[in-house]
Amino acid sequence: METYIGSIHTVGFNFAPKGSSFCQGQLLPINNNEAVFALLGTTFGGDGRTTLGLPDLQGRSPVGVGQGKGLSTIMWGQSYGSELTTLSLDNLPKHSHVAAFNPSGGGGSVEVSVMASKKAGDTSAKDNAVLANATEGMGLQTAYAANPADADLVSLGGVRVQGSGGGTVAVGNTGSNQAFGIRNPYLGLYHIISLVGVFPSRN
Length: 203
Hints:
Layout: E1 8-11, E2 20-22, E3 27-29, H1 34-40, E4 51-53, E5 66-67, E6 73-74, E7 84-85, E8 99-103, E9 108-111, E10 114-120, E11 130-137, E12 140-145, E13 153-156, E14 160-163, E15 167-171, E16 180-181, E17 190-194
Parallel strand pairs: 10-11
Antiparallel strand pairs: 1-17, 2-17, 3-4, 5-6, 7-16, 8-15, 9-14, 10-13, 11-12
Domain Phage tail collar: 6-62
Organism: Photobacterium gaetbulicola Gung47
Pfam families: Collar
């Protein structure tokens, strides 16, 4: 039975019969394969002047041309895909890592002003009272002023708060970025293309 020139068959034997060739991306001379060139052109390689290329189906699966529902468009002769891939940060789901705090030395100081009243004290220690000149009355010393006027307040110096500390937070990376396989289960067979036969008619 004659086949169409350019038709591709999958066979269980390991040779290309007369009038056919393996689909392994070979370059053929145009002058001996004008009919094949008329059908394939340079879709699968070749310079279009002296050579044409055959499809390369070594390790690849053929797929229908066009755009299936919800799928990307596949062009005639388009070759795509890899048997290995790696994931980048953009491919990973949101997640967290353990953070390690590494303390280190540091220091600093803050000047603090303590307010006091210039007038004599009129109360013992209580909420919102400020230091005042100590007074004695009936044996009880009062050194605080309750609700002093702003004009009576002075700022006492000599108070300093010394602080120290510091450090860094380190979030470590994990994983080794190794490539992993995405190839479907397979069975190795030969693809052959007919170089002679019936030239297909468009109508």
